[in-house]
Amino acid sequence: MHYAVAHDKILRAVKGTTSQAGEELEDTQYQRVSNSFARRQMSQQQIEELEQLANTSNVVLKTHRRNYQSFVTDAILAEEVNFVETKLSTWMASMEKRANRAQNKKNAQATHTGMECCCCFDEVAVEDMVSCRDEGHLFCVDCLKSFAETQIFGMGNLGIDKETKKRSLELKCFHSDGCASGFGRSGLEKALPKRSLEKYDEVQFILSVEVAGLDDIVSCPNCGYQAALQPSQRVFKCPVIDCLYESCRECGEAAHIPL
Ligand SMILES: [Zn+2]
Ligand SMILES: [Zn+2]
Ligand SMILES: [Zn+2]
Ligand SMILES: [Zn+2]
């Protein structure tokens, strides 16, 4: 069995599947995984599903034992378990985030301290909203996330620039007034999960190369983020929030004056 397929099967065995769909399913899975984390062991059902998997797989879990902690005996398997655990904890973190947002929303609505999302018109906690750069149009992170993901995964581009009528090089505000502003980097980082943000960067990079040509592409020496930079600019200010490194375009060292 191919490892990627095996990974998915292990994850499914641990998370479980039901006849539910979408968020409801994820909530059930979240309960199940956090319960087994809390007890430091898996439920009978989870173990049975893993055993079933082991019987149909000749690569993975051949030597698994009943106990979650001690069933790792060989190196390959240890790697597998590590991989799955990392994947699981990433997923747990995103589920926790979602639960927190739901709670924030409840609080905001109860205390009337929220703001109205320009897209779904729900009252949402301000900390879970992102505004467009120039006009301050507020969107809840869920709306921004689904808008951005539809665009980058569905269309493979960042939409049309309303002013130039050409392919936009950044995601534009989707307020119904037809706002021409984009979003700041921090807003995108807040709304998009890592995988989507990477896809966004990739789409933006490809578009930039198409429009600007390879000569104008610079990459941050600190984090590797790539973007188009006007020929007139000598200093590249990395927009990635964890980085913000300023580098010299010519030598790749920290930005220096004189140039
Ligand atoms: Zn919304
Ligand atoms: Zn706007
Ligand atoms: Zn950087
Ligand atoms: Zn330099």
TrEMBL record:
The keyword Membrane does not apply. It holds the Pfam family RING-HC_RBR_RNF216. Keywords: Metal-binding, Repeat, Transferase, Ubl conjugation pathway, Zinc, Zinc-finger. Residues 113-259 form the RING-type domain. GO terms for molecular function: transferase activity; zinc ion binding. The keyword Zinc applies. Pathway: Protein modification; protein ubiquitination. Gene3D superfamilies: Zinc/RING finger domain, C3HC4 (zinc finger) (3.30.40.10). PANTHER family: E3 UBIQUITIN-PROTEIN LIGASE RNF216 (PTHR22770:SF47), UBIQUITIN CONJUGATING ENZYME 7 INTERACTING PROTEIN-RELATED (PTHR22770). This is RING-type domain-containing protein. It comes from Phaeodactylum tricornutum (Diatom).
